[in-house]
Amino acid sequence: MHGLRCHLLNTVIKPIDESNVEDQVLLCVPPTETAEHSKFEDGVKKKVEWLQRKLKDYGYVGHIAYDNYGKAIGFIEFISSKGAPLPTEESETTAIITCIDLPKAPRGQGIGTGLLKTALKQLWKIGVCQVKTVVSRSPQWINSGIYRKHGFQLEKTLYKVGCAEPFDMFTLRLDGSQPEIEAVTEYFRSELKDQLPIEVLYFDSAQCPWSSAVLMNHVNAVAKFSKEQVIFRAFDPWTHQEMAKRYGAMYFFDTFINGRGPFFGPPKQDQIEAEIQKEIDRVLHLKK
User: Fold this and answer.
1) For residue 282, which phi and psi values (nearest 5 degrees)?
2) Domain boundaries in the chain?
3) With respect to CATH, is domain 4-187 assigned 3.40.630.30?
4) CA distance 242 to 251
5) DSSP string covering 179-214
6) What percent of the chain has pLDDT over 90?
7) How far apart are CA 239 and CA 34, in angstroms?
8) 3-state DSSP call for residue 80?
9) What pLDDT, in 10s, does the model give residues 257-280?
10) Lowest mean per-residue pLDDT among 4-18, 109-123, 190-204, 270-284
């Protein structure tokens, strides 16, 4: 696959392969010249290795957009639904968009649209018939706008226990006209607990380079409490898929405290400490 040049925007869109896989990963973390970057070095290494494995398994993981200076400015990433920790059917002909991220791209220039169109064409070429994605409604993330614009339909609205922010699953057929879909609401059924010690579960996946840094936030936060108050467990959603699907852990950095998911996005250490203390206080109040 060769790069697609968008002459109007002076942008080149290239498939992700062994030669540029790190370009994608580095778009997700603080710049290498900053002190903050050191926290993410382990996560970057794990993500590169994860993408390399997916390239071997699937043959295609997405595209990267470059500006006219050869600088990576955004990307789109895919996985197969086969073996993915998601609340949807598993099929070799269904692909999942895990991320569209445009951290260094000028807004309103159609770069996200270019990435999406290029990726959909390539997916069709490799035999994919259906594409899905899960998005939040929060304005700071890529949400449903770009997908609705290109014909995706709402399939499900997903709610995690303890999290007010819903996630929407959208779907698009590539092999014909779009069927009429009556969207449904689905509530994940995590195992709620009202007891001490507080159980903190963290789903730690190499799919996101932030995950290792957020894992350390959890380890450091839990260390502030005694073992009588808190127990901590970390799971990879890819190797514990049934658990991930039950809790609604999706792809990465999901935290559940006594079965409740209080965070939207990667939490800082002080946020984790505060939620643990809040849960301890709640349980102690119940025992009075």
Assistant:
1) -65, -45
2) 4-187, 198-286
3) yes
4) 13
5) PP---EEEE-------SSSEEEEEE--TTSTTHHHH
6) 73
7) 33
8) strand
9) 999 999 888 999 999 999 999 999
10) 4-18
